[in-house]
Amino acid sequence: MLLASWGLEDVDHVFTDNDYHTLTNYKAFSQFMRPLIAKKNPKIPMSKMMTILGAKWREFSANNPFKSSPAAVAAAAAAAAAAVAEQVTLPASASVPQAMPIRRAKTKEGKGPGHKKPSKSTRVSEPKKKPGKKKMTLLKIKLGGVKRKAGSSSEEMEPPEVSDMEDSSVHSSSAPSDSSGRVKRKRGRPAGKKKKKGKVWRVVVEEGISAGEGYETDHQDYCEVCQQGGEIILCDTCPRAYHLVCLEPELERAPQGNWSCPHCEKEGIQWEAKELEDEELEEPTRRDRREEEDDHMEFCRVCKDGGELLCCDACVSSYHIHCLNPPLPDIPHGEWLCPRCTCPRLKGRVQKILHWRWGVPPEGVPLPQLPDAASDQEPTRSLQGRSEREFFVKWSGMSYWHCSWITELQLEIFHTVMYRNFQRKNDMDEPPPFDYGSGEDEGKSEKSKNAEYSDLEERFYRYGIKAEWMSIQRIINHSLDKKGIYRYLVKWRDLSYDQSTWEEDSMKLPDYHYHKELYWRHRELIMGESSSCPSKFKRNHKESYINDVPRSPTNDPTVKYEAQPPFVSSTGGTLHMYQLEGLNWLRFSWAQGTDTILADEMGLGKTIQTIVFLHSLYKEGHTRGPFLVSAPLSTIINWEREFQMWAPGFYVVTYTGDKDSRAMIRENEFSYQDNVMKGGKKAFKMKAQAQVKFHVLLTSYELITIDQAALGSIRWACLVVDEAHRLKNNQSKFFRVLNGYQIDYKLLLTGTPLQNNLEELFHLLNFLTPERFNNLEGFLEEFADISKEDQIKKLHDLLGPHMLRRLKADVFKNMPAKTELIVRVELSPMQKKYYKFILTRNFEALNSRGGGNQVSLLNIMMDLKKCCNHPYLFPVAAMESPKLPTGAYEGGALIKSSGKLLLLQKMLRKLHEQGHRVLIFSQMTKMLDLLEDFLDYELYKYERIDGGVTGALRQEAIDRFNGGYI
Predict the structure, then answer these.
(1) How many CB atoms lie within 10 A of CB 918?
(2) Both 655 and 795 in a single domain?
(3) Cβ pair 779, 758 in contact under 8 A
(4) Does some domain include residue 301?
(5) Strands 715-716 and 742-743
């Protein structure tokens, strides 16, 4: 019936008397019948095989004609025990395999942030408390019979299949026994052989956890009744063991708890609680060991509180389920990883944080449907997530086009120090206001005209990114990978060279294709090759000034220009006549080999004349450079703009910045050839035969000296020194280092060639032509009395070939004269009071008792000037003045305290109504601070330029003022 219900084929075998005498135990019967059943049913599962063998054995035992014999009785008992064991071992429905249950995620009871885990020594010394509830069951399993002597008989050796089956049966039966607390059982062997002390291992089995190692016991490994082995239960008060079916009455399942055999009960031997007490006392130790092994945090990582915590399976983090984002309705099943372990990695290293905002809350996890809910009932609402901060970051080694948003968790994990510093310096409750890098007013006007600008403003500009930082200035290098894909090294406007970035050829950037054309055309012009140039850039350039430059001179530089040359007119600019004369004079001097000093008065355009002169030499084929221009750092930006305006065909490189920027320039801007100079932050000489990439190199006085090794190894066609009074001392390092450079022609620019004495003029001439001007003492003696008319004429004749100087009065005869209007203003009452304090030398009234800046009255005239400007320039008046919560001076009191500010207030209101822009000069920076508070109070926009505003910031302020954006 059993085989038919399972759809298996039965084994037709007729047992003989010999079989009944031979197959006296279940083991022998199993070895005999198993191959027959497997032959008929090759794919029979092991569980069904064992069930069928048990049924066949019971049928065989019932039909045994010799069942009255002791051997038959023992065999029947063993068969019954085996059948019971199979029923316990096998699942209720053997035909349907049960799936393994999915465990729930790890949880623990956190003790809060103040809890510290005790050390091992502390746990040993702690008193052992008796637990209220027993959580484990001790299972005794017989593991003997594995090692056999070589001389043992074959009957003692079990087949591998049976042994495997029995072991698996024991373990599978042990799994449910620990949860129910049943009596301990083991697998025994028959008692026919010599009795030996078998090793029975006491194994601790936790719920859902397999058995581990334990200690030995001396229980017998066969049934006390039938003297057979099999699965037996152990007495807790003596070494005896029994089959369940051999007990009177017969037991269907192992009893729970501790159990004493019938012999012990008959003798009155009672089970003692000492063993249980020992076992229960062992429980805290095991629990402490588990706690010691559990390294998870004792508090929630979010709220820093204890309680029931959800533990991550990959790290030590713990969380409340309601502190997660979004919150979880219940403990999840299976392995669970915390948000930190599942946080996606960043695409690079964050260079700086530009902005932050509150992000969109994540979608909530829906609550589970109630079991008794109606089918048409609306679904339960989900637990809503909360908004978290997002940070707009600039990536290191990437341009501002790649700026993107990252989560707060990503920043905290991968850039902990940066995140903490940002938290400490910024308000983390309210996002900062938008910072329009190019000016809010300028952005609004451009946004209304250009839709593309509007998109960029939404993505980048309002987070403090200037439009210039995303505009290509030039491409300085390229690379070609194995796949034939080009990448370009881009120099961005208003950013230093060390912030140049590599961009893919397919990157969509404004004017990207145009700048790639310029790069390849200039490379072909310098290197004379186009083999590496992509086909789409060959002979496809639009700009006429990039076309091939004549290899030989096209005209005589001694011939004057009667009109403005075409290469100047093509720029859209117009030279004044005196500037055209200066150009002709410079060209003639260059042709004669005479080094010169252009000494025009300030404001007459020495920079423009110099640039047009250098450009004319290049365009007419007289020289291809390179030209070295040394100027003050504050004027470098102006030189760049003038070169871009008057000589667009020049490749101008600005050699300034820190060591990283200069190393980038030397590596990528000095030559198109590879390995012409050693790399690194230290400057090395350039190879003699290397082709220079640039036409003009702009640099400062200091770098002429610092990077002498690199710059001094280049042969310069012309040197231009702006503000040449730096050369008026021949003992200066700049003078001595520059004298060692290889220079073909020298041009000095200065507005004051003769400022103090003739010695300074001699040093300028000595730098120009040391062969002619090399005797300082003779020069000073010759022109000792410069007031004499003949000496003045002689000096003019001496300087004539070398110096050209014009004054504004000479060239701009129609220019209106400067009008100076002095307005006398009455002192305010506070100014009069402090004026008297100064005249009477009242130190107590002028100085505060708290210390700080004290008025010494050593220079009374300067103190009176300060008083006439504003009394708040004195410490006592500044301390007693009313202030706003921001620390600024209150506007009304600030204006009433100074007669000058009262007049300035009236003047500015009139000028503002007429649309004028105003320049205000002051000799005191503290007075500029007061003027800032005054202008803020009057709601005027302004720009401040003082000695602390240099370089690019100064030029940007000038541009904003001239552009009308203030």
Answers:
(1) 11
(2) yes
(3) yes
(4) no
(5) parallel
Q: In terms of domains, do 84 and 196 share one?
A: no
Please tell me whether residues 462 and 488 are part of one structural domain: no
Q: Is residue 313 domain-resident?
A: no
Edge to edge, the sheet with strand 746-749 lists 652-655, 696-699, 627-630, 718-721, 746-749, 596-598, 803-804
Which pair of structure tokens corresponds to residue 957?
A: 């302020």
**CATH number of the domain residue 485 falls in:** 2.40.50.40
Contact 501, 398 (CB under 8 A): yes
Query: With 0-12 CB in 10 A as exposed, 13-18 as middle and 19+ as buried, what is 27?
Result: buried
Helical pair 577-592 and 606-619, crossing angle rounded to 10 deg: 50
- Nearest residue to 697 (alpha-carbon basis) of 676, 673, 718: 718
How crowded is the C-beta side of 187, counted as CA atoms within 13 Å? 21
Match 């690079």 to its residue by tokens. Answer: 348
Q: Which of 224, 251, 275 marks a domain boundary?
A: 275
SS3 709: helix
Flag whether 609 is in a domain: yes
CATH number at residue 644: 3.40.50.10810
CA dihedral 119, 125, 127, 131 (to 10 degrees): 40
Say whether both 614 and 743 belong to one domain: yes
Rg from Cα positions in the chain? 50
Concatenated DSSP letters of 601-669: PTTS-HHHHHHHHHHHHHHTTS----EEEE--GGGHHHHHHHHHHH-TTS-EEEE-SSHHHHHHHHHHT
Q: Are 451 and 422 contained in the same domain?
A: no
- DSSP codes joined into one string, 303-343: T---EEEEEPSSSS-EE-TTTSSSPPSSPPBS----TTTSP
Give the integer Cα–Cα distance in Å for 328 and 109.
17
Give the residue, 124 or 332, on which the prediction is more confident.
332
Residue 50 makes CB contacts below 8 A (sequence gap 6+) with 86, 90, 165, 169
Residue 286 CA: distances (Å) to CA of 15, 180, 208, 215, 937: 56, 20, 17, 16, 75
Alpha carbons 44 and 138: distance in angstroms, whole number: 34
Both structure tokens of 575: 């030279």
- pTM of the predicted protein model: 0.64
The type of residue at 823 is: V
pLDDT digits (tens, 9 = 90+) for 605-644: 999 999 999 999 998 888 888 999 999 988 898 999 999 9
900 φ/ψ angles, rounded to the nearest 5 degrees: -65, -40
C-alpha to C-alpha distance for 748 and 754, rounded to whole angstroms: 13
pLDDT tens digits, residue range 108-131? 676 666 665 554 443 433 444 444
- Domain count for the chain, please give it: 7
Same domain, yes or no: 705 and 786: yes
Q: What single-letter amino acid sits at 12?
A: D
Instruction: Choose the final residue of a domain: 516, 545, 574.
Output: 545
**961 touches 944 (CB < 8 A):** no
The pLDDT tens digits of the residues spanning 525-572 come to 888 765 566 766 665 444 444 455 677 777 888 888 888 888 899 888
Distance from the first to the final alpha carbon of the chain: 102
Measured in whole angstroms, the distance separating CA 627 from the mean position of its chain's CA atoms is 42
Residue 759 lies in a domain: yes
Domain span including residue 736: 565-804
Is the same domain home to 632 and 762? yes
Retrieve residue 88's tokens: 């316990």
On whether both 571 and 662 belong to a single domain, the answer is: yes
| Cα–Cα dist 654/643, whole Å | 11
Q: Which residues of 156-183 are buried (b: 16+ CB within 10 A; e: fewer)?
A: eebeeebeebbeebbbebbbebbeeebb
CA separation for the pair 840, 92 (Å, rounded):
114
Longest CA–CA separation in the chain, Å: 160
Distance in angstroms (rounded) separating the CA atoms of residues 364 and 643: 60
Q: What is the pLDDT of residue 408?
A: 93
C-beta pairs of 95-99 under 8 Å, 24+ apart in sequence: 95/6, 95/48
